[in-house]
Write the structure tokens for this entry.
Amino acid sequence: MDLLPFIRCGTLAHGHLCPPLVLGTRAGAAAMERLGVGRAVERELLAIVELGSDHYAQGFADGVQFVTGCTFGKELIFRLPHGKAGVQLVDQARDRAVRVTVRPETIGRLEETEWFRACQSSGQFANGSDQLAGPTADALLSVPEDSLFTFSPVFPLGLDRPSPTFESVRCDSCGESVLAPYAPVIDGQRLCAVCQERSRARAEFISQHRSDGPIKE
Ligand SMILES: [Zn+2]
Ligand SMILES: [Zn+2]
């Protein structure tokens, strides 16, 4: 699998040249190979990334997204915030998965690079560290995947997923278009979630003031 188009596309979406994005791209590709599957053209796969929201290596998740096709838009990528650069890739047709984690030695080498030090001291990932990211990313691309990652055996994992809904309706109150299951008919009116909440608050306000009597100054 030629990873360069996915790294280019991922970098464009991510916003800066990012060594963890290269790691995520390689991890995602390796996971697909272990599962014997192609990219998620539709919703064939699902990725669970193990980074928390405060991880410096967020590019890892974007690498996984672009190479596997498990995008946020298709709701095929989730976080399990364990503070690890790891991913579990699920083959939804066969209810099985594989877990790929970045080896501690790889993390150790990455955290010794000038790129990492520049990011760490500035708290920024672009600008000053951009020219340092290139050589670090190239180095991660040139070594065999077994030296970068640890792989679990393929294990059973099935997850219930909703199937797509194709029916839109208009909210009788705000007039916005809303997917039908999100706007049930209540007292003869189709209301979106926001308008349901508003109408509930209005009804509550009216009933409170009825029982309290008129508001006194
Ligand atoms: Zn980044
Ligand atoms: Zn509405």
